[in-house]
Amino acid sequence: MINRVTIFVMDSVGIGALPDSEKFGDVGVNTLGNISKVTGGLNMPNLVKLGLGNIDGVEGLERISNPIGSFGKLMEVSNGKDTTTGHWEIAGLHIEEPFQTYPQGFPSHIIAKFQELTGRKALGNKPASGTEIIKELGEEHMKTGNPIVYTSADSVFQIAAHEEIIPLDELYKMCSIAREILKGEDQVARVIARPFVGEIGSFTRTPNRRDYSLSPFGKTILDFASEAGYEVMAVGKIEDIFNGQGITKEVHTKSNMEGVDKTIEYLKTDSKGIIFTNLVDFDAKFGHRRNPEGYRQALEELDVRMPEILDAMTDNDMLIITADHGNDPTYKGSDHTREYVPLVVYGKNVKSGVNLGTRESFADIAATIADILKVEKPQIGRSFMDLVIK
Known about the structure:
This protein is α/β, with parallel strands linked by helices. It has 2 domains: 4-93 and 216-388, Alkaline Phosphatase, subunit A (3-Layer(aba) Sandwich), CATH 3.40.720; 108-212, Phosphopentomutase (Alpha-Beta Plaits, 2-Layer Sandwich). The protein has 13 helices and 14 strands. Strands 10-9-11-1-12-13-2-14 form an 8-stranded mixed sheet, with helices on both faces. Strands 3, 4, 5, 6, 7 and 8 form a 6-stranded mixed sheet that branches. Helix 10 runs antiparallel to helix 11.
């Protein structure tokens, strides 16, 4: 009997363009395949053993004859390719209206309100790479004390500030102010604190990022599980993405490897319910920065840790490995890419070698967990429990 499911979101590890990717400006994208292609191959024997390379259409990994897990790929039915949309769909929500984006920067009434309530002028106010905009405006920020405001192709309002110029507490307060402004017709999915340190010419972002999300507009599998008395343990930025809704325990992390450590700690507890982990470094450090070599190294670092994760699982555990969108580091620009995401399922009571094919929604994960935990099902998703449970 399975009574606990761990979801590992390898943030942005897409496996090929969705049929509608061109509508999102993405042609020929394939995060995993293109990383393998340009870096000379991926060494991921443990994830290959689980069946990652057996997924239909996956490029750059070995297809083996006897994977120990079951496998498939997921389509995104929601209208978007951002973090919030992807995670909310994994949890059972269908986002039909995309979150508001600001490709020309934020309109004057938003910036004026932000400046009025924070008492500081906003620098920037345009779409930009986070590392590039602190190079461009960091010196002016240091001289004036004014925060750097920028966005991307995603629905985000990002505030960058040097930790010695605007202390973290004040930066977080400014984000809370922006979160209150950016609702209704002006709503964005996330307000993000982007602190950095260093000297002019050598700024580096710190791990003290914080996300301020909207609350999900409907109940998710996290709500249904927690309301039924299960624990819902969030690792990494999961609590931020769901604005705490449906979560019973949370821990924030500063790296992929800390995320693995904290997940293993939760696995070693006598808990029942859901462990929901986001490993953000793939996306934040390597996808957006178009660094395929770094991305490859991060993937291989995770692979090395997989035996520890499997060893920490009990007979009553199921592991689901997936992603929330793509972020092909070989593609133009610096934004997410609209892709299929992997689905790998493992457990002592899970069948091995089952090809789950192409699933029509990320929400199939939520529907499956609902069946396993015997709780209410979310609004969308088709369960694959009967296909994988022994």
